Amino acid sequence: xxxxxxxxTLGLGAFGVLAAPTLQRGLESLFAGDPTGLxxxxxxxxxxxxxxxxxxxxxxxxxxYRLTIDGLVDHPRSYSLADLKALPQTRIVHDVQCVTGxxxxxxxxxxxRLSHLLDAAGVQTKxxxxxxxxxxxxxxxxxxxxxxxxxxxxxxxxxxxKPLGHNHGGPVRxxxxxxxxxxxxxxxxxxxxxxxxxxxYWEDRGYDVDAWVGRSNGRDDAPTx
Length: 225
What we know:
The chain has helices spanning 3-31, 81-86, 114-121, 145-148; strands spanning 67-71, 77-79, 90-97, 103-113, 129-134, 140-144, 153-159, 162-163, 173-176, 188-194. The chain is built from 4 helices and 10 strands; from the N terminus they run αββαββαββαββββ. Residues 1-45 have low confidence and may be disordered. By secondary structure, the chain is of the alpha+beta class.
């Protein structure tokens, strides 16, 4: 390789390193909310990728966000973002594993334990499962009541030690630490206690309902920690 060609190649490489974050942000902005899954091909800040199953998702903030808890409970409740922040907070640092293969190690999430909200609502005897709905109008998820009471399941409003942004499911999302990330429903708006597990959006399309990392969906990923 000639000297001029070598220097030119090195220069382009350096430019790529410097320009990549800006180009990446532009691509993410262009494809944000894309239902085609194209954004899943794009790595983004911190190793995360954006996924949405709808063409657009409304933005919510402290002024208009509400989380409802209903179904087989004694005390149905609607929480504002301020209400959730006023409750006892739990911070979990755990790996995030996507069923498509990428992993982000040591990711902090912070919020209210789901078990705390269920206890406050008073789950009735017939209640054995939880159905989660989202304000994108399409996505749903589910857990058994036993799973939902684990201490590493959060209704989270912070991620990576900052408020949860819209593209990461903010202002509030579910965080299910030991399961594949599709169980951690973004844009969370409803928690409904039901008699039986109702498969969620991706379970209706072939994903496992019980999505333990490394023990489901035909994958052998190392368990998250």
